[in-house]
Amino acid sequence: MRTQSRRSPRTLFAVAAVGTLLAPLAACSGAGGSGGSDGGGSLNVLMVNNPQMVQLQKLTAAHFTKDTGIKVNFTVLPENDVRDKISQDFANQAGQYDVATLSNYEVPIYAKNGWLHSLDSYVEQDPDFDQDDILPPMTRALTAEDGKLYGEPFYGESSFLMYRKDVLEKEGLTMPDKPTWKQVADLAAEVDGAESGMKGICLRGLPGWGEVMAPLTTVVNTFGGTWFDEDWTARLDSKEFKEATRFYVDLVREHGEAGAAQSGYAECLNNMTQGKTAMWYDATAGAGSLEADGSPVKGRIGYVPAPVEKTDSSGWLYTWAWGIQKASKNTGDAWKFISWASGKDYEKLVGEKVGWSDVPAGKRASTYDIPQYREEAAAFADVTRDAIANAKPEDPGVQPRPAPGIQFVGIPEFTDLGTKVSQEISSAIAGRQSVDSALKKAQKLAEAVAEKYEGS
């Protein structure tokens, strides 16, 4: 299995490429590493405006700052905006921000470019943080090719299938414990129209490398396709890639939500919550909202692993994590913040102050041993943890890959490539062109990227 070591150096250091990046405890003292203070300082944190991060912002002054004396200045932005701002500040090593939220897509690339501070020395001198408690797939995903750790997860997720148990039961249907995509398609046809205004399934169709391309790429993987083979040959025009894409497009067009070409995670979550769809394949993070107090469908949803065809599993792996800018002059304080925000006691704080359904889970094994959390998340906790454990970023399909990633290809160019390809796929979902036409254009885009890597 080839890894990032095959990436072209000129590409890894291309600031312009990364600049195009688009689309969820008591403070420690004496942490190792350079920089920082003993408290009473100030820290600049740039983060995405996801609900869990907004909640963190509200809790920081009364807990972290009160305990450490470290004031935290937050800049909170929507996902696309925050990615652009982070890439600009970190690429230039401007040092305006000490800590930023990065995903497991960016961390290995940023680390390779020398933009991040290694966290190993801090982890070693902070036993209370308990790195061994972090779920292994998360640690691996945030470790660069030099073997060093460059990020700590705030929360993690995979993907699975969510379905209305009551609707299937009323129709005399049974969801398999481990469904295939073809079984899901058959069920979608059966439950389409089961209730007034209800469609069979909701699938993302909104353009974006992190929108429609995320679930679609997991379907491609399990159908036997890949973006690139191990020699960097683009394979978007392969039989398997075409079959998977036709399946996805046909399914959402025939039994999916209205306006599918403009529906992303948020729209599908709303459709599922409001009873407008019987099934939804998407991020495990969605379960917390579906099971939250006040949700119209609380207690009526079943959860099973991501559907498969040719692979044993197909769920993706994603985390919003904390990274320290290499140019930061406050790395000691930065680690104290990360150790608090990603620590065991922070999860307990959220559970007690906000609610256990709001705990930023999916990153620590100990979370799943907390009685209150297990009670609140009983419907989906084990399925989520299993999905994360079974995710295989280095081996997500049936053939070797030249770069890691399940729902993305771990190269800087993927943000631009994935977004452009997604526009073609979304156009096919909208009925403006055929899948063959969309993939013919997509293949040319992928071939242009492959030329930079062939022979590397």
From TrEMBL:
CDD domains: PBP2_TMBP_like. Keywords: Signal. This is Sugar ABC transporter substrate-binding protein. Transmembrane segments: none annotated. Residues 1-29 form the signal peptide.
